Amino acid sequence: MDLLNHINSPEDLKKLKPDELKKLCSEIREYIINCCSKNPGHFGASLGTVELTVALHYIYNTPEDKLIWDVGHQAYAHKILTGRREAFLNNRKYKGISGFPKISESRYDAFGTGHSSTSISAALGMAEACRLKGTDNKIVAIIGDGAMTGGMAFEGLNNAGASKNDILVILNDNGISIDKNVGALHNYLLRISTSRAYNKLKNDIWHFLGAGKLRKAIRKITLSTKIAILKKGTLFEALGFRYFGPIDGHDINQLINTLGKLRDIKGPKLLHTITTKGKGYRPAEENQVEWHAPGAFDKDSGKRIKGASSRSKYQEVFGQTLLELAKTDKRIVGITPAMPSGCSMNIMMKEMPERVFDVGIAEQHAVTFSAGLAAAGMLPVCNIYSSFMQRAYDSVIHDVALQNLKVIFCLDRAGLVGEDGATHHGVFDMSQFRSVPNIAIASPMNETELKNMLYSATLDKNMTTIIRYPRGEGEGLDWKNADFEEIEYGKGIKISEGKRVAVLSIGPYGNRVACAIKEIHDETGMNDLCSHYNMRFLKPVDTGILEEVAEKFGTIITVEDGMIKGGLFGEVSEFMSARGIKAKVIPVGLPDRFIEQGTIAELSRECGTDTEFIKRTILESISRKI
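Below the sequence we write its predicted structure tokens.
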């Protein structure tokens, strides 16, 4: 790390000679590998952008010139070069730095980008602000890792191309997001990047770029060459962008030469770079899907370090159950926005590829596409990460619920997700959708309930169903050998009987409640202090249970893995208030603020949703009654 150890800002980087930059790139890549092997993160994407990051900070005057990374997990090298080299050792850790660009973290992070396809719109806004203020700051959006497949990226391109603002979009084309990229755009880019005739001629005329009087003529020659060889005008030229490339995104000298020339060209421009996800680490290059975010690993052998737990993940339960149901119901089809392996829909995709649709990073499209399938008589099961579903809220209301279409939405990664932090916690879904008509909202307490909820949703119920469940391991139940059992919509179950306090839980936090009650019973020797109800459904809520607890208990505790505002606490409080019932309702859930990164255990302690806090809340409620 001879060079990297002396770089604490882009100003230090600019002091290096051009022939030293290749060595610096190697040191950055080795540093990322060393850090991520012990402290896991989004690995492959950032290895692929090392040279591009170095070239950008070498040519542009950051932070006055703005770099917007999209998606944000490509920005590890950027963080390391902008004064956070030592802080990167605590990347994604509790109280450490975020794994994504974050405005409040550094003046070099021009825009927060945890989700995808937002950079071009943000860059256009910044470019327009510069024009209005009369400044000449350069604005660069680096979009890749599948983010160009998102519809918002095209909205931004359309607006930016027409505006003629000075903006550079760098398309970091690595052919993959988490899974392999899909769709017409991917095929179009592949056609451009593999056309030898076009690229040879492009390189021949590239050297004339910026030659003053020749510039317009060169542009005409370039455009006509694209039309002749690619059989059509380029998409980006049609949208008003000057298109340059494709070029090798790992050739630091070519990047610096190209960016240096493009910096002085006004108007909307797009540079197409070809990179390899996982570049410089052979296991990551050879298995890009697995090494997107591989967890801890031995950097010398490339062996991933996995825990010894035999518990199934909720994702496996979903994937296996979906396949089993699809074998007996030909109406069932699977839809996912670029997450087949992450949500385990790849299990069905492997056996029934014609009935599973990966639509790319396009959640809004995934929802309305599902609505179209439902309207035509199919039974779509659409799996979207809870936090990503926020992007499709309008589509759920207008295209699904309003038309009362039968779509099953499985919201993966519900609740706190851990180290990905505020951009990825799935904590808003219950509050979001509780007020929408024609929607049922269910959350399983364990693996077997997830299996049965998915099965029950496929039965003859003419309504949209949302099933939300967390990331990671379940409770270790033998769900595989359990027979399917129908769960009646809007019906919860009583888990334990008591006289002093009622606890109503929904979702996996019910296991924490059960554990807390057991500890209280063991410590006090009294087994009748607390009644525990697993509500199962937020909507329709089990009014029978609510009437029972209203009659028997003066104190009710609600426990949920979502926001207190608008969730189960809101449902129970509204029920009691509407009937003039004076029961005290005490909430346990997530507070009204954004939660940063950390382990689930650390964040649960911070938010007051861990077993110890639940136990203390129950005991305090009982002592007040005594």
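DSSP finds 26 helices and 17 strands in the chain.
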